[in-house]
Amino acid sequence: MSNTNRLGRGLGALIPGGSAAFEPAAEVEIPVTEVDIDLVVANPQQPRMEMDPEALAELTESIRVHGIIQPLLVSQEAAPDGSTVYQLIAGERRLRAARAAGLESVPVTVRQTTPQELLELAIIENVQRADLSPLEEAVAYQRLILEFGLTQREVAERVGKSRVAITNVTRLLELSDEIRASLAAGEISEGHARALLGTDDLDVRRAVWRRTVDEQLAVRQTERLIRDSKKAPRLPSAAGAGNEANLEALASAVQRSLGTKVTLKQNRKGTGALTIHFYSNEELEGVLDRLGVSDL
Q: How confident is the model at residue 188 (pLDDT cuts 50, 70, 90)?
């Protein structure tokens, strides 16, 4: 069996006695070893940044009562002093919970891996358990592409997702730092983030994001704002009132459309005035024509 196919089948093909989250691999007998918990070291390729403290506490209590049902997946490595350590491949939450529960040893399945497999298997476990945030997924997939030279299609095959899904997730990294932080904090959802990617205009993207957060808009409302931004210039929101850069950009857009000088003023309450300047009767007629106003 090729390495690609084995990884594509998921961790169920690598870990015995898997839970419902993994496909069983009854045809494979893989030995389980009990090792000192202090000899298990973290996976340097672990894509997961955050863990839910409440869920981790629940897992800790379960392990305290029942022990670890599913072994950790590790690789056997030599430490600088010549001793043997076990580098974690999959099972970060179980290892943390086991330590919190006071376990002195943990069951492991040993598998030798390359750095690429360390990252792939860690991603597969977290994806199959739905443990990664959208941004953590995006960073992990991007690492496979940039560091290991995989195509999006190859990444999709390894983690059991469609190429389109990989494309959609990795595009989240195109968002600005403040919008990515907003997504990570839960102010907006992945659906909102994808909607914001519907425009390449960074000013519009930021304005719509700000309005989405301030007004707690639904994804469909954010999508509508992005679509509308492509049809005609519009103010970002009342929350943006008094923002000189936004007002100047809008005034410039109207000025280009009408072919004459335009000034725009707005106060923090959202009220203001749009002034259209003209310097001759002919210029006035030209402005009226562009506005669709017939002669009186």
A: very high
Q: Is 157 a catalytic residue?
A: no
In the chain, which ranges are E strands?
33-36, 40-41, 72-78, 84-90, 105-110, 262-266, 272-276
Q: What is the mean pLDDT of the chain?
A: 77
pTM of the model: 0.48
Catalytic residue (one of 92, 125, 136, 157):
92
Gap between the Cα atoms of 137 and 28, Å rounded: 29
Cα–Cα distance measured from residue 245 to residue 126, given in angstroms and rounded to the nearest whole number: 43
Q: What is the DSSP letter of 265?
A: E
Q: What percent of the chain has pLDDT over 70?
A: 77
User: Which residue has better confidence, 226 or 9?
Assistant: 226
Instruction: Print burial letters for 86-95: b (CB count within 10 Å at least 16), e (below 16).
Output: bbbbbbbbbb
- Which residue ranges form the domains of the chain, and what is each CATH number? 3-169 (3.90.1530.10), 175-229 (no CATH), 244-291 (no CATH)
